[in-house]
Amino acid sequence: xxxxxxxxxxTAVALCTLGAGAASSDPIAEFYKGKTFTIVVGQxxxxxxxxxxxxxxxxxxxxxxxxxxxxxxNMTGASGVLSFNWLYNIAPKDGTAIGTAxxxxxxxxxxxxxxxxxxxxxxxxxxNMEESAAVCGVTPEANVTKFDExxxxxxIVGATGPTGPIGQSARAxxxxxxxxxxxxxxxxxxxxxxxxxxxxxxxxxxGLPWSTIKAFWKDELDAKxxxxxxxxxxxxxxxxxxxxxxxxxxxxxxxxxVVELIFGQLALGRIYAAPPGIPSERVxxxxxxxxxxxxxxxxxxxxxxxRIDIIPTTGEQVESLVKRFYAVPVPVVERAKKIVDAK
Length: 343
Hints:
- By secondary structure, the chain is an alpha/beta fold.
- The protein has 2 domains: 30-131 and 268-340, D-Maltodextrin-Binding Protein, domain 2; 134-265, Periplasmic binding protein-like II (D-Maltodextrin-Binding Protein, domain 2).
- The chain has helices spanning 2-24, 27-32, 48-60, 81-89, 165-176, 190-199, 210-216, 218-222, 253-263, 280-294, 297-306, 315-325, 330-340, and strands at 36-41, 69-74, 97-100, 124-128, 134-138, 154-158, 180-184, 204-209, 227-232, 244-245, 271-274, 313-314.
- It has a 6-stranded mixed β-sheet. The chain has a 3-stranded parallel β-sheet with strand order 2-1-3, sandwiched between helices. The protein has a 3-stranded antiparallel β-sheet with strand order 11-4-12.
- The radius of gyration is 24 Å and the shape is globular.
């Protein structure tokens, strides 16, 4: 009898241990274990978005339960819209892919771009690595020392696709401040425009993030082969000192509202989104892992070495800002659309 009781007790302990193990297992970790996680970048290699994403990829996997392997893939076209079309309509809806592109992708639908086959308010926004401050800058060949000179002098500036933030920023300056920028579109990304500036094809660029300049245009900046002449951002950047700001040229309340819509997007500097339809618990895990990465000491040391700024915001904050843009009154949107329209 004692032997039977001991055997039953042993079996009960084993079953309890098994049950405890099953209960304590992490389904998120189980899902991601052994998986390959993809970060799709909507800009060409060598751009700021590419460099930021590769830095993220080197550390993000440590914070995602199950520690998946992470790869970065570039999918260029239509200033990031192509990659977000893929993310929304084709990418797996299981939490194994996220994407990033310039901030314009979040508002293309608002501005009526029919090439954007997605609803930005339905993406699962994972987070933002940096709130951008952008500038318009020129080469010495432009023979321009301050922004006001562009009100009477025409120069050629490079741009990517007609809907990209580089071209939109230049058109916004023409429409709001009255500059005479001649825009040459068709470059694959800012790295290509940089080469065009070095060869003399163009004399300037607008909408270039200050963090990109500090990290990847530092030699040109230090050698005065690139001169920032106006800030294009939601607020003035302390490192840009007395350089003119777009707010200086928004003289009416109407113009101020348009400026806030067009350049307020820069708060979405390095955004990352996942497709709609992902299980909510995986979205939460990816958001949590993203913010944990942003404060990871190894990641921050890597970011400093790579010379990129980290000013993160949460996925929830990105989601709220995107929704706020889509709640802007229609008349303001229409005025902004008229200014940035490439036609």
